[in-house]
Structure formats: structure tokens, C-alpha cells
Amino acid sequence: MNNTSKKILVTGGIGQIGTELALALRKKYGADNVFITDIRDEAPAIITDGGSYDKLNVMNYSDVEEFVKKRGINEIYHLAAILSGKGEENPFLCWDININGSMNIFKIAIENKVQKVFVPSSMAAWGLGIQKEDVPQESILRPTSMYGVTKVAGERLSEYLFLKYGLDTRGIRYPGIISCETLPGGGTTDYAVEIFYEAIQKKQYTSFLKEGTKLPMMYMPDCIKATLDLMDADVDRLKFHGDYNVAAFSFAPEELADEIKKIIPEFTIDYKPDFRQAIADSWPASIDDTPARNDWDWKPEYNLSTMVKDMIEKLSVKLK
Ligand code: SER
After folding, report:
1. Is 61 known to be catalytic?
2. Model pTM?
3. In this predicted model, what pLDDT tens digit does every residue of 26-65 receive, in sequence order?
4. Which of 51, 215, 233, 310 could anchor a disulfide with 296, C-beta 3.0 to 4.6 Å?
5. Exposure of 154 by Cβ count < 10 A (0-12 exposed, 13-18 middle, 19+ buried)?
6. CB contact burial 20-31 (16+ within 10 A = b; e otherwise)
7. Whose CA is nearest to atom 6 of ligand 1?
8. Where does ligand 1 bind, in terms of residues with CB under 6 Å?
9. Does the domain formed by 3-175+219-245 have CATH 3.10.450.350?
10. Where do the domains of the chain lie?
């Protein structure tokens, strides 16, 4: 398929990752070939200014199927989901949206000859009994959050549907993603984004994760690069289908704060852990991403200090 014959559907297209992924897809394949959707009535100007936006609920099978047929969709990035924190507030809704929503997308994809489907997984797939440092690609998956349970099920479904129907499913276990375009909503790693807003505006931040909570993280440009590179990879090289480990860097809240202080010296942090601490404690501190590096040449560009510098530069302009 050449680039202009691609017709791409993005669900969850105005979420934290969805927004920037959708914009990158427009740039790569042309705005006319990328259909950005989400459940809200209105999208922000950054989305509506450069192309189409449609309200579409992944729970509504017939609406999604009609959308796919009408636009001749042949590739789907399915990002609509409930994250870990929100998922613990309503675990049954989290299962419903993350699993039944994905099943709708998968079934529609198979029945309408969609060629590739990207469904993200997460480090939340891990939980009890893991190796905390450098957790390997093939490791035990015993998540303790409903979000994590849905991510493991999503990974298994992706592989199952590839094996049974030849549906070209692909997915990444994202670490916490840091970005300045759209705020994340309801995740455990959200603190690592909020901290920048508060550091610039109030010079103070109260973290809902305690000192020493080291988690794997990644800057948005690398998240987008990983996603696009995996989708471009030759399918014959892929040994995994819904669950590639990717890593960039890891830090605990105080290490991020120290890095911010190098640029905003008056910044202070204190800690008031909430229910998300238990979720974070069940996740790994660092990830081994050797198969992604070998199978599709994955390599991140940003480290902790280059990410912090870029975030503060960009966000300072945005918050002026
Ligand atoms: N960032 C996500 C969350 O915190 C993890 O995938 O829920």
C-alpha cells in the first residue's frame, strides 16, 4: 500500500497520546487520509484547524462499522481507553470500554478487511511477582489494577487474532508518557506531567506518588516515533504482536524535581501519596526492550535531562 492509499482511523484521538499521534499521522500521510475521532462533541483547535474531527463512540458497533465502510478505512490506531487511576474508580466500566471497545474494533477490522490495527498496551500489564529492574519482554503478567488486567487481555487478543485471522495487530507496552500538548486523564504517571505545569506556574508541586517511586517513562516524541516505527516495520520481522517492551529512562519524583530545579531553582516538591501509590508500587522500575531494538530497530532519542529542558521550554511558551 502506498501512503496516499492509506485511510487511517484514530480513536481516542484527542487524548494525551491520540492528539500528538493524530497530528503526526496527518503530517506523514496527509490530513485527508487521517480520520480523528473521540467521544467529545468538540475537539481543540489544534485538531480542527488542520483537518477532520468526528465524534465516534467505540462502544457503538454499528456507528464505527459505518464509519469504517464509508471512509474505506484500512488502518486503525485504537487509543480510546480508560487509564489506571480512573479504572480503579470504576473497574467494570474500565473493562467494558477497554475490552468490549477493543473487541468492536477488532471485529470490524476483520470483517472490513482493515489491514493493520494498533492497540497500545502498558507497563500496567505487569504486577505481582515481577523482576523490578529491567523486566524482560517475556515475563509473568499478574496485574493488580483493572486497567492492567485489560491490557494483558488486549495483548493476548492481539496475538490470538493475528494467529487465527491474520489480522496484522501491533502494540507497545508504553511506559509513562510525558508531554505538553494535551494533559493525560486519570493515569498513575500523570504526576510527571502535572509537575511541569505547577513548577512553571506556582513553583511548587505536591506529588501523589511518594519519594523513591521509580517508574519507566518516555517523552512524547519518542512515543510517537516508537508507534510509527512499529507500524512501518516489516511484519515478517515481528515476533510479538500486541506487547513490545519499549524503554527510554526511569526516575522517581525527587529525581524529576532535581532536574526541574536545575532550570527553575526556586521549585519545591512535597509528597501526599494517594490510592495511585499502590498501583505504581506494582509496576516495574525499568524495562528491558531488547526485542524491540532487534526486531524493528527501536531506539529512543530523549533522556531525562533533554526531556525536562524541552518540556520547560515548550510549556513556558504555551503558558505565557
Ligand atoms: N500512563 C498510564 C497510566 O498511568 C500507564 O499506561 O495509567
Report:
1. no
2. 0.96
3. 999 999 999 999 999 999 999 999 999 999 999 999 999 9
4. 233
5. buried
6. bbbbbbbeebee
7. 122
8. 83-84, 122, 124, 147, 174, 176, 187-189
9. no
10. 3-175+219-245, 177-217+249-285+302-318
pLDDT of residue 33: 98
The rounded Å distance from CA 130 to ligand 1 centre is: 18
Condensed to tens digits (0 to 9), the pLDDT of residues 154-181 reads 999 999 999 999 999 999 999 999 999 9
Question: pLDDT tens for residues 173-213?
Answer: 999 999 999 999 899 999 999 999 999 999 999 999 999 99
DSSP category for residue 32: G
Pick the atom of ligand 1 nearest to 123's CA.
6
177-217+249-285+302-318 to CATH, choices 2.60.40, 3.40.50, 3.90.25, 3.40.390: 3.90.25
> How many angstroms is it from 279 CA to the middle of ligand 1?
10
**Burial class of residue 247 in the structure, from the number of CB atoms within 10 Å of its CB (0-12 exposed, 13-18 middle, 19+ buried):** buried
**Most ligand 1 atoms within 8 A of CB, residue of 94, 182, 190, 218 to mutate:** 190
8-state DSSP, 262: T
Calpha distance 188→148 (Å, rounded): 12
- Residue 115 · residue 232 · CB < 8 Å: no
Q: Do domains 3-175+219-245 and 177-217+249-285+302-318 have the same CATH topology?
A: no
| Pocket residue to mutate for ligand 1, from 16, 97, 122, most atoms within 8 A of Cβ | 122
Of the residues 147, 174, 219, 302, only one is catalytic, namely 147
